Amino acid sequence: MVSQSQAIVRQGKIPPPRPASARRRHSRAFWRRTLAGYAFITPNFLAFVLFVAGPVIAGLALSFTSWDLLSPPVFVGLKNYNNAFFVDPLFWLALKNTLYYSLLTVPLGIVVSLALALAMNQPLRGIRFYRTSYFIPVVCSSVAVALVWKWFYNTEFGVLNWILSWFHVPAQGWLTSSGWAMPAIALTVIWKGMGYNMVIFLAGLQDVPQHLHEAAAIDGAGSWARFRYVTLPMLAPHLFFVLVISVIGSFQAFDMVYVMTGGGPGNATQVYNYYIWQNAFQFFKMGYASALAYVLFALICGITLIQVRYLGRRTHYELG
Amino acid sequence: MAVKAVRAKPAGTILSSRPWRTARRAVIHALLILVGISCLLPFIWMISTSFKEPFQVFTFPPEFIPNPWSIAGYQKIFTIAPIGNWVLNSLYVASVITVCQLLFSSLAAYAFARIQFPGRDVIFMGYLATMMVPGQVTLIPGYILMKYFGWIDTMSALTVPFLFGSAFGTFLLRQFFMTIPMDLEDAAKIDGCSYFGIYWRIMLPLIKPALAAVTIWTFMGAWNNFMGPLIYISSPEKMPLAYALQLFQSQHGGEPGMLMAAATMVMLPVLVLFFFTQRYFIEGVTLTGIKG
Fold this sequence. Notes:
The complex is a heterodimer.
Chain A: H1 2-11, H2 28-62, E1 65-66, E2 74-75, H3 79-87, H4 89-120, H5 127-139, H6 142-152, H7 159-166, H8 181-207, H9 210-218, H10 223-251, H11 255-260, H12 272-281, H13 286-310
Antiparallel strand pairs in A: 1-2
Helix pairs in contact in A: 4-8, 4-10, 4-12, 5-8, 8-10, 9-10, 10-13, 12-13
Chain B: H1 18-50, H2 54-57, H3 72-80, H4 83-114, H5 120-131, H6 135-149, H7 155-163, H8 167-179, H9 182-190, H10 195-206, H11 208-224, H12 227-232, H13 241-252, H14 256-276, H15 278-291
Helix pairs in contact in B: 1-14, 3-14, 4-7, 4-8, 4-11, 9-10, 11-15, 13-14
């Protein structure tokens, strides 16, 4: 761009800058660009500083204080972090529940949506219909979905228990028993998210070059071998992406838990994000909640970095 | 998005014989239909329940076809709840956010992609760095900021922080602007077109598909937002629909017919939008997902 503007100057379309100005280091075009650039980003940038960057720093500062919103905040050093790690048993419980929730939702969610994508990457009739129906749960409000599933899971009048009664499975209190509540929420979350992941996988599958399949087939590879050694490696970037966002998403679960169980029964579905919200807006422990949020931030960063380090590297295959 | 066929099958093996292929296809269809039913069943159940009177709701085994069909649930919502307000609140919040965000995000995205100015790359790195930060980190400082502005329990708390664009939307649109060849822009520049003119008349029309995807996902996100109203809004008449639904549950949890009618009404606008703009929804996933 610089050389081009100089070229325009040389062609004489724009009057050349006065030659004697040794102090003037930049051309008029430079200032015009700078002004335009800042004019374009200013609204966005100010809002970013005020509502994102500022709060991120303020959150860290708050995590070293004790504050109930009524009296002024008091600096307490690392006490909040100390409390979380060594005093508060609910912190560990919430963390454990969140890990359990991740383990339930992430692997199964990926396997189901990958299977769907593989099935749909075939010359079949009605693909559009299937895709639409799998995608409907994705676009619906999580609160509405949670309410519908709550009714679906209803112990006495719910459809699930009715279907299971055909197979002589006794009625379960899906959301009211501490053993089933978390798997029940996980199933709803997988159900809601599988259409999204499926679309990503399907896009990936359609990018796998046909000639690789043909070459493998000529070398005598069966369908499993072609899946394992052609499709899967070619799909690795998509798998990696879905894995990373699913893990991050699972650590931030909130809406479904709030509506379906409210963290109960007992503390069976007390997940980390719910515990942060409770501390901040029910117990008004703003400092402690900020510390919890920063621990979550560190956790997410750590887990994502591990994934990038150990998996991200293996996901690049150049095509000759 | 066209679904391409995988045609490479090794010739001559038993697996490629005709009956086998038909059987295989039938199995795949059966599985896809089963999953399709499981995707739709909860919604069918919701709609069916929403047209039932209380005495029809509590039956086991459940009846999928309401007998008789009743709109009492819908009528009752309108009489006991300010549902018109809720719908208007949601529409207001979602449209204002979508329109403003589209404008300001695309402006910034264009500058980040195409205008060379000092400090640009440092600022953009700042944007990228915060995209990793989970929303919980900014939740409490954000709340305190709103309190300081005196916006607790007002619509401003739900809209203003999102009006000027998001780091994510800016990032996404920037990636799109980057893919457009420079030639067009250069020609316009030589003709004396201003930066704003280039952005408005040349670049924006070229990224329409991306704008459509961002519009839809932004609108949907704002319509379905739950955490924001939960923290900021306490007066029932100021609540957006998706959040009010939760309040409704705590007050009328014992009336599934009415509750499901309310849930249907929350989902309906987004579903209608989805059916008419499905392509952009699905393109949006692949755009935001991989290429973004």
